[in-house]
Amino acid sequence: MTPTVRTISPEEHLAHLSSLRSASFLQTPAWGEVKTEWRHESLGWFDGDRLVGSGLVLYRQLPRLKRYLAYLPEGPDLDWTSDRLADQLAPLAEHLRAQGAFGVRMGPPVVTRRWSAAQVKEGLADPAVRRLGDLTPTVREPVGARVVSQLTTLGWRPQGSDEGFAAGQPQYVFQVPLAGRSEADVLAGMNQLWRRNIKKADKAGVEVTTSTGRGDDEGDLKAFHDLYVHTAERDHFTPRGLAYFRTMADALGTEDPDRFRLHLARHEGDLVAATIAVRVGAHAWYSYGASSTEKRDVRGSNAVQWAMLREAIAAGADVYDLRGITPTLDPEDSHAGLIQFKVGTGGEAVEYAGEWDLPLNRALYAAFDLYMKRRA
């Protein structure tokens, strides 16, 4: 039977997410509250009266027109193992068209390839290797391959970028598998430099505390943001404003008290590193980070990462996700340092299916696509 798609309440949406082992925090009702510049809606897929899928849709309006790009970041949460994805995606397109969408963008939460930390390390050291794709993956995921094949057949268009970070969510991430592993197992899987830096931070007296960033803890969020702005100035990226992080802490933390957590590493009272961790079910993320230029030798960044990993293990998480990397393995590339830092955790580089577009109004979609390309 082809499922039906209709709007559901945030409570129904959360009930479905709670039945899943893993779902992206970008697909929670709370994330719609964070993205204030978008209209949002929770959708449910129903087999009769049974809720079998869910998704958060963000609607971005075109200037002067009541037409929208409908975006499902890292979603929706469906049965992606199905060989009949058309039965699930056709009613989605029909619903979104009725809502005034001229196009749909989604990011199926399915993995296509994985590379071990050892492979990535060897690739970084091999002058003949320039990209992850130059290496034979440790694992090719058949579900991911089937999803890509079906989407192509159904007329969806891949939006991945081969250079740098794409405009949407990252297609390549670095993750540390945690299922069935103890703290000792994870620590042993790290490289020697990471283990040494964790010990060095401990010996130097670095202390890591956690905070909700809300209510009485709002001062901690301001301290994080001050350090984050300092990091942005040093590393030459544009920081988000404090109001964004206040909204994020309030929305995610109100939805679930374990959803949003600040970690603050201090040395002799000085804040040397700070991070935001997010967790949905058994999937934990390192979402944002900041570090001081001073006192780099006390290794606050390693200490705070280890604290987040330990917290994820204690919570029974299956994976600790360090979020985006680029596919470059060229040591001369400006992004190479990021993957070198993350590979020390002993995890794996992971390629997702990426983001895909479906034009619903070809003329409006073509105009929008041209506009986005000119902006880029």
From TrEMBL:
Q: Name one GO molecular function term.
A: aminoacyltransferase activity
Alphabetized UniProt keyword annotations? Acyltransferase, Cell shape, Cell wall biogenesis/degradation, Peptidoglycan synthesis, Transferase
Q: Does the keyword Acyltransferase apply?
A: yes
Under InterPro entries, the record lists:
Acyl_CoA_acyltransferase, FEMABX, PG_Glycine_Bridge_Synth
One GO biological process term: peptidoglycan biosynthetic process
Among Gene3D superfamilies, the record links this protein to:
3.40.630.30
Q: Does the keyword rRNA-binding apply?
A: no
Classify the source by domain of life.
Bacteria
Similarity remark: Belongs to the FemABX family.
Under the heading PANTHER family, the entry gives: LIPID II:GLYCINE GLYCYLTRANSFERASE (PTHR36174)
Identification of the protein by name: Aminoacyltransferase
- Native species of this protein? Nocardioides anomalus
